[in-house]
Design goal:
Elements lengths: L28 E10 L12 H4 L7 E10 L16 H6 L7 E13 L8 E7 L23 E2 L5 E2 L8 E8 L3 H29 L4 H19 L15 H27 L3 H18 L10 E7 L2 E8 L20 E5 L6 H4 L7 E10 L3 H7 L12 E2 L2 E3 L2 E3 L10 E2 L48 E5 L7 E8 L6
Helix pairs in contact: 3-4, 3-6, 4-5, 5-6
Length: 493
């Protein structure tokens, strides 16, 4: 990799950081971090199919880093120099924006079906930024991956991971700036959009089924009443001592407040003056679009949550989830739409392969995700009432087979006697020490890989066996059956 190679791209549309009209404002941004995404982090000297992701051509599949950015627009003459050093006073002013708080990202994996990787064990990695990424040595290690498990045939067409009653859970510790007031406002607006779209669909279905006009009118009025209640919910405000707002935050708050008030007045007029269902639905559609335009947060410095499916130390498929979707808040109106809820995730291949094999599903995950401050972690544990949480210390014993005998003392042994799953880090059993206040519930025991409980032919209804006929002959003679006429490919009977 050279110094001028592009490793990530970020687009910042001017329309998201400015506004027109009487209440408009010139483009402004930050101080706030922007996050870069690009290709997978397994570097290669030769170009690969993922290089275009670094240029912003397609969805980036890996977090690349972040940059602190501030942008201001001033009217007047052009500056004499295009690049200037940042004054020391400005460097001191931005220090207050760099304060971080500790976050916890929890994931509970319920099932993994339609798995396409069947030749090697499969594991899933959960990360946010660099935290949780197995390739990153700059952050503390954490329990961000599931146990490698071989896929098992389901008896029909697909393969699944046999987690059975023991569901793997991961937890990622991270530290980020507290921008919850921005993301909570976004979550509130997104929930209003979802609720309105659901109610509009209900009205459309009623119109197609030709319900009587009085019933249609009642549905319309109920939808508008519910919308008015949602629109009057207060937007979250920055809390002094915890949050720091900048010029764009203040401009966005003023802009949203004015827009929401105008939308409320518009909805009231539609409610009072509507005489035709179709015309009223057109007006509601315009209201929906105005709310969608408000449900955008340009200063989202919290990186996305990324889930990777890994097999044979290769990253096969991924899924990116915006952090605000799983962000917890003490106010139910501000909680992320997928926070702590079971969601079905259809993972996809990275880069061009996603388009080439768009009809192939790498795997279908059912998982629960929760992101919140470390001090709020008890909320996650209290909500997990479907089972008992157990924490294990895990190490892998390595041996080699010599002349049919297994041993760990051979010179051909390339791994430590006890190690991590990849055999790279030595993990002797006696080196495990429980955290302060914890104690072991039992002694070490051998925990077989889950797929070993299933026979290799489990679930299959048809089988194919290879058999080879062996013949021999002497020079100038004819072919005849060998002493062992039928064997496998290595001549074993």
């Amino acid at each position: 990799m050279n110094e001028d190679d592009t490793v990530g791209t970020y687009f910042l549309p001017i329309s998201l950081i400015s506004s027109s009209g009487d209440t408009g404002f010139l483009p402004t941004f930050g101080p706030c971090y922007i996050n870069f995404y690009g290709s997978t982090r397994e570097y290669s000297d030769l170009p690969d199919e993922f290089d275009d992701l670094n240029m912003g051509k397609g969805e980036g599949v890996a977090y690349r880093g972040r940059a602190l950015l501030e942008l201001k627009t001033k009217l007047g003459e052009l500056p004499e120099t295009s690049i200037e050093s940042i004054p020391d006073d400005d460097l001191l002013k931005i220090q207050k924006y760099l304060r971080r708080r500790n976050y916890k990202l929890h994931a509970a994996f319920l099932s993994a079906t339609m798995v396409t990787c069947i030749d090697a064990p499969v594991e899933f990695e959960v990360s946010i930024g660099n935290y949780g990424n197995k390739l990153d040595s700059g952050v503390a290690p954490c329990s961000s991956t599931t146990q490698p498990t071989n896929a098992v045939f389901d008896g029909c067409h697909y393969y699944f991971l046999p987690w059975s009653g023991t569901k793997p859970c991961t937890v990622v510790d991270s530290a980020w700036e507290d921008i919850s007031f921005r993301l909570e406002a976004l979550n509130l607006l997104l929930k209003i959009v979802d609720s309105l779209e659901s109610n509009m669909e209900r009205v459309r279905i009623s119109m197609r089924t030709k319900l009587p006009l009085p019933e249609l009118a009642q549905l319309l009025i109920s939808m508008l009443d519910e919308l008015l209640v949602d629109l009057k919910k207060p937007l979250p405000q920055p809390e002094k001592g915890y949050h720091l707002e900048n010029d764009l935050d203040r401009n966005m708050q003023s802009y949203r407040k004015v827009e929401l008030q105008e939308i409320i007045e518009h909805v009231n007029k539609v409610r009072e003056n509507a005489t035709d269902i179709n015309e009223a639905m057109v007006e509601v559609e315009s209201v929906l679009q105005r709310i969608k335009n408000l449900a955008i947060e340009p200063q989202n410095s919290l990186p996305d949550v990324v889930i990777w499916m890994i097999s044979n130390e290769k990253r096969i498929a991924y899924h990116r989830i915006p952090a605000y979707e799983v962000l917890y808040s003490a106010n139910p109106n501000y909680i992320g739409r997928q926070c702590g809820k079971v969601q079905s995730i259809q993972m996809k291949f990275p880069g061009l392969k996603a388009e080439k094999e768009k009809y192939e599903i790498p795997t279908l995950l059912r998982v629960k995700l929760w992101l919140g401050l470390a001090k709020q972690e008890d909320v996650w544990h209290k909500n997990q009432t479907e089972g008992e949480l157990a924490v294990f210390a895990e190490t892998y014993e390595n041996q080699v087979s010599i002349l049919g005998s297994w041993t760990d003392g051979s010179l051909t042994m390339t791994r430590p006697k006890f190690s991590d799953v990849q055999g790279k880090i030595s993990l002797p059993k006696e080196n495990f020490v429980p955290p302060t206040g914890w104690k072991w519930d039992g002694d070490w025991y051998i925990n077989q890989e889950l797929s070993l409980l299933y026979d290799k032919d489990a679930g299959h209804k048809t089988y194919l066996e290879d058999m080879y006929e062996n013949q021999s002959r002497i020079p100038v003679g004819t072919w005849g059956l060998n002493k062992q006429p039928w064997t496998d490919v290595v001549s074993d009977q």
